Amino acid sequence: MLKTKWNIAQTYLELVKEHSLLNVTNDDIINHSDVSRGTFYNNFNGQKSIQDYIQEKIANDIITPIKDDLDTREINTNDIHQAVLDISDSLIPTLYHHREMIKLLNDCELNHIWEDLLLDVMTEYMAPVLKNNRGSIKNDRIMLNYINLIIESWITEDNPTDPEAFKAILYQLSKQSITQLL
Prior knowledge:
Layout: H1 2-19, H2 26-33, H3 37-43, H4 47-72, H5 80-97, H6 99-107, H7 111-132, H8 137-155, H9 163-174, H10 178-181
């Protein structure tokens, strides 16, 4: 049943990638996923429930393992750049492992599903660091979004850099202020 459910969800993502969110119907999903109407509706109420399922799958397969791993790590709360490196030790390999799903979401206008969850993780684990470094709330939010954009740019490349090499790049980029990059 889970394989069928994921097959339907993947078919939905591929159709959205090809035709856009507004141009995909439940019938399209049923026809392209080779399931009966009954099987489709036993698994999903419609496209919103498919999106909810995808979000739940990302939370379970990507976000929960990252958070579980981060909970076992000691994150340096005195040095914001070292904290980025500490967090990326958990974050980067897990995202790399799931890069195909993330790339598919990104390619089909549903990147907000994983980006929002990632930003929540970054916010949760960076909050003590940012508090200790006394930045403004606006600057903190900009920095977290900046880090997320760097990660998104990396993981959605056709051939992303090796995770270890990317962690070094992310660390160096986190040391630069936004204004230095402009």
